[in-house]
Write a structure and sequence with these properties.
Strands 4-10-9-5-11 form a five-stranded mixed β-barrel. The chain has a two-stranded antiparallel ribbon with strand order 6-7. The chain is built from six helices and eleven strands. The chain is an alpha/beta fold. Helix 4 links the parallel strand 9 and strand 10. It is about 30% helix and about 30% strand. The protein has a single domain, classed as Nucleoside phosphorylase domain (Rossmann fold), CATH 3.40.50.1580. Helix 2 packs parallel to helix 5. The two termini are about 15 Å apart. It binds the ligand O=C(O)c1cccc(C(=O)CC[C@H]2O[C@@H](n3cnc4c(=O)[nH]cnc43)[C@H](O)[C@@H]2O)c1. The site of the ligand O=C(O)c1cccc(C(=O)CC[C@H]2O[C@@H](n3cnc4c(=O)[nH]cnc43)[C@H](O)[C@@H]2O)c1 has 19 residues, from strand 4, strand 10 and strand 11. This is Futalosine hydrolase. Pathway: Quinol/quinone metabolism; menaquinone biosynthesis. Keywords: Glycosidase, Hydrolase, Menaquinone biosynthesis.
């Protein structure tokens, strides 16, 4: 049994590739782990994991990526262990209310990491979106409805696929920006990626 490392973009694992001297490519089979680059977003992630997840092959999926943060007391570049993730937009508007797909009777939109692996990071709840939040009103509505700490475009897809295949799953996110009306100049992508990669390298090294 092996660990599968999953990220949306190769750029988010730049230093990890360098450290382990990995070849270019979106699916890499190394000695102690496999690595899958899915592409950005929940659709690409679900499709890619659907192709690569075999319950008998992996005992752990590790989802690494950067994320936006709703909580301004958390510094950019901080790392969080996302233990709860919600498909925020999956459902139906009902006037001013929102009905989840669970309310509609069509399944689940809310997932938890049930892993017992000890992680030395604060736990947090995230939302997964198709559209990065960048409008004050919709951000306020999202916070009021779901009270998330972070936002990504893939997390809940990874939890969903792992639940379908009964595979243990962890999601580690590094904060690159605050969720606010879009201003990419304020994003600290380089810092977030460096901290994420340092943690990922140490974690995988310790694991083996
Ligand atoms: O511009 C760059 O240099 C660059 C390098 C690596 C990655 C990126 C991305 O934009 C990755 C997209 C990835 O980031 C997640 N993300 C980050 N902030 C947010 C957010 O505020 N709301 C939702 N998602 C966010 C997301 O999971 C994307 O997959 C750029």
């Amino acid at each position: 049994m092996k660990t599968l490392i999953v990220a949306a973009t190769k750029a988010e694992l730049t230093f990890f590739y360098q450290h382990f001297n990995l070849p270019e490519g979106d699916f890499i089979e190394a000695k102690n782990f496999d690595l899958l680059i899915t592409g950005v977003g929940m659709v690409a992630t679900a499709f890619s994991l659907g192709k690569h997840l075999k319950a008998s092959k992996y005992n752990l999926v590790l989802n690494f990526g950067i994320a936006g943060c709703f909580d301004r007391t958390i510094e950019l570049g901080s790392l969080l262990n996302i233990t709860e993730d919600v498909f925020a937009e999956l459902g139906a508007e009902n006037g001013d209310d929102f009905l989840t797909i669970t309310d509609l009777g069509f399944g689940e939109n809310h997932f938890h990491s049930k892993s017992n692996i000890k992680i030395d990071l604060p736990k947090a709840k995230s939302v997964t979106v198709n559209c990065v939040s960048g409008n004050g009103k919709s951000i306020d509505k999202l916070v009021k409805r779901l009270n998330p700490t972070t936002e990504s475009m893939e997390g809940a897809s990874v939890f969903y696929a792992c639940k379908q295949e009964h595979i243990d799953c962890l999601q580690i996110r590094s904060i690159s920006n605050y969720v606010e009306p879009r201003n990419k100049e304020k994003w600290k992508i380089g810092l977030a990626i460096k901290n994420l990669n340092d943690w990922a390298i140490a974690f995988i090294t310790d694991m083996n």
